[in-house]
Amino acid sequence: MEEVTRALRNTVGKKGMSEDEVQGLAEYLMSFFGFSDTVIDNKLTSNDRDVFYMLEEEGFLTTTQDEVHLRKGKLWRIHYWILKGDQIKRMAAIVDEVIKEPDPVEDLYGDIDESVWSRH
Fold first, then answer.
1. Terminal alpha carbon distance of the chain
2. C-beta atoms surrounding 7 within 10 Å
3. Where do runs of H (alpha helix) occur along 34-84?
4. pTM for the whole thing?
5. Residues 59, 53 contacting (CB under 8 angstroms)
């Protein structure tokens, strides 16, 4: 859960989603998957599916399908959503580089040789 939250913070959080929304989305996502990495598409509502498509674009999910031949000769397709655990771990591990603001005093005195500062 912590990795999913960090990964969401590093992706959709940087696009304007608030911390509360990121936390809620992480809980929402994990409520479908729990301890599994696969969810059958039939369980989703239209709104759920929209969220899953957005998460697929962000790299959190992917899809797959199975085809089953029924006795009557018909082909039945079962669609699945798969949680991309390795990708989520990579996205969670991203650490922002802290951008150091230039210090005007340091810039002014930083170029002066150390020997100027020593006392005799």
1. 61
2. 25
3. 46-57
4. 0.72
5. no
Residues 6+ apart with CB under 8 A from 112: none
- What Rg do the C-alpha atoms of the chain give, in angstroms? 25
Mean pLDDT, all residues of the chain:
87
The two tokens of residue 34 are 């729990």
d(CA 33, CA 83): 8
Side-chain-side CA neighbours of residue 62 (13 Å)? 7
pLDDT at 104 over 70: no
Beta strands, E only, the chain: 38-40, 61-69, 75-83
**Strands lying side by side in the sheet with 61-69:** 38-40, 75-83, 61-69
The residues spanned by each domain of the chain are 2-116
> What is the C-alpha separation between 22 and 11, in angstroms, rounded?
10
The pLDDT tens digits of the residues spanning 42-81 come to 999 999 999 999 999 999 999 999 999 888 889 999 999 9
Query: Model confidence over 9-20: pLDDT tens digits?
Result: 999 998 889 999
